[in-house]
Amino acid sequence: MDKTDLDRLLLEAHDHNDHGALIRYYTMAADEREAVQDIDAACFYLTHAFVFALESGAPEAEPLNARLAAYGRAHRLEF
Q1: pTM of the model
Q2: CB contact at 8 A, 63 and 53
């Protein structure tokens, strides 16, 4: 998926307050940035995905927290 499509999907998910889609699309954006070793951008997107996962009680919160902790951007939490 190209960046323009992903940006459009993120905006639509925000418009609809769709936390599941926001978690998914922010994680996809993080994965793409991580693949090209842009770790600061990847962690920016991971943080957004993590916050939406926490707010909605989604199971993705734990692996997102682990990824952020691995980069030294968060403390590891217990879920």
Answers
A1: 0.94
A2: no
